[in-house]
């Protein structure tokens, strides 16, 4: 649960652990998804290549727009000052509003701040969508 000002929202997060053996559960995860966080280790070349596949299987498959997506490059033993660059095609999406954060064990507060901002955007987007639906019903 998140509380901020006059609102409180419940967030449900699903973790697929980077494993396709859970693919039979993906339709349940896609249902009513409003945002997506993709986490990878930029120090592992295989994960850098796979992150585009995960983007295709989740936010793209759900029709989630880039501003409702977040890419987190987490390097447990990495350099906290290194800026995470979205790999390949995801770099274009970062220019379209996808949140990008990089983190190490030493700067998790920075990632948390980026996540809070991302979550606020997702909540605001859902509130605006709900308001549009209600206004449409009133017409």
Task: Tell me about this structure.
The protein contains 4 helices and 5 strands, in the order E-E-H-E-H-E-H-E-H. It starts with a strand and ends with a helix. With 139 residues, the chain is of the alpha/beta class. Helices cover 42% and strands 16% of the residues. The strands form 2 sheets. Strands 3-4-5 form a 3-stranded parallel sheet, with helices on both faces. Strands 1-2 form a two-stranded antiparallel sheet.
Summary, kept brief:
The chain has 139 residues and is α/β, with parallel strands linked by helices. It is 42% helix and 16% strand.
List keywords for this structure.
139 residues, alpha/beta, three-stranded parallel sheet
**Mean pLDDT, all residues:** 81
Main β-sheet, spatial strand arrangement: 3-4-5
Q: How big a fraction of the residues is strand?
A: 15-25%
Number of strands: 5
- The end-to-end span amounts to 33 Å
Approximately how much helix is present in the residues?
40-55%
Largest sheet: 3 strands, parallel
Q: What are the low-pLDDT stretches, counting only 5+ consecutive residues below 50?
A: none
The sequence of SSEs as H and E is EEHEHEHEH
Number of helices: 4
Using only C-alpha atoms, the radius of gyration works out to 16 Å
Q: Per the principal axes of the C-alpha atoms, what is the gross shape? A: globular
Class inferred from helices and paired strands: alpha/beta
Layout of strands and helices, then pairs:
Elements: E1 2-4, E2 7-9, H1 26-30, E3 36-40, H2 45-62, E4 69-74, H3 90-94, E5 99-103, H4 108-138
Parallel strand pairs: 3-4, 4-5
Antiparallel strand pairs: 1-2
